[in-house]
Predict the structure of histidine kinase.
Amino acid sequence: MLNLSFKDRISLYNLFGVAVLTLLIFSAIYITVAFTVNYDINEELTREVNVHREKSAKVNGKITLVHKEEWQQSEHNTMDMNPVFIQIFNENGKSIDKSPNLEQKDLILHPEATEEKFIDSQLDSVPIRQIQIKLEEDGQSFGHTVIAMSIKPQYRVLNSLQYILVITYILFLLILFFLTRYIAGRSISPALVIMQTTKNITAHNLKDRITLPANRDELYILSDNINELLNRIENAVLREQQFTTDASHELRTPLAIIQTTLELLVRKPRETEEYVLKIKSCIEEVNRINGMVSQLLMLARFENFDTNFQLLPIAINQLIDRAITRSKEKINTKSIKINNSNMKEYFVLSHESMLSIIFDNIISNAVKYSNNNGEINIQLENKGDWIYCTLSDHGIGILSDDLDKIYDQFYRSEANDHRHIKGSGLGLSIVKKISLLLGIQIDVQSNKGKGTDIHLKIPRFKM
């Protein structure tokens, strides 16, 4: 198809459909009228046949009209008002008599024609319809009578109707095309606004939004969905920009420490013990960078994680025990007591490796922010379709104003007051993302100086 605009295609499709439908209607009108006109002509001829069937007779061997006054009727004398033409032929096809209105003209006899068959012909350029009947006496044929009527007025009506229908059809389609094109243009104007607005939206300009149409139709839904998509894209871009800024800042700090330490070491010779101390400090910062990079990769992995993973029954007690074992060195270093007396085995429906990451992070945080000789309590409880897990520590706690920020990437509450506690601020961000993937509900409650309670609501595996 030609490279037509959307509104032109709508107009043409609509025009084609209406053209076919209108053609069928106009054809039906013409056929109905033509059938009615021809039926009336045939009926009139049939009546004439019935009238004249017995008016011709054979007298003394000659064919004659029984009532000669028949020719005096106006329909047989004139060509102007509904003329009826009659001509009588003998058995040899020779004309014996005819109506006065035929004058010097003759009707055509068709000997081979079927009896009482309607035949269209012309009489001196005037369209006529004729019928012929056999003349019989005592079962013997002695001639034919041909009766004809002018059909010029009827044909004039049919030709005029055909002309009017054709002209009306063409004008109607032309008007319909331009009217449909105008209406289509008005109808798609909101779509043109959408196109223009989306054209102006770039990576550097994500603030613009599509003005919602007044009517709550399909275009309204489309505009609203595009606006929602733009909101998600803008939020994703902002998060990426913030992530890049925060990651750069967090990685720059340990790198600056390593650089400063190494610069101090090369300025002048130092004692072996001092070299060892400074190198250990650099190794700690390198380990911190490695840990941060690992967490960043993990965060990026779960950001685009395929949600079509399989959930399996998992013994949550064993998962918690393994997470405690992995933090055993830090636990022993700070002499922290772990109260995990869950003798009953609980099964959850989850993903083992992702659920392990959650417990590794929250137990590691609990140990990190607990005081020396502190306690950490872990409780499990079965409630209907859920397993409730509560992990409580008696550490430094979190300010109430900071609780709504703890899931933000790189955020650490009162980081300047706790410089001795190493961390990246990514742990709870990872926990939150995995919780959303696994359908786990997480709630954190904390009091400054008293400790923190983390509540997990995990789907239970039904035996």
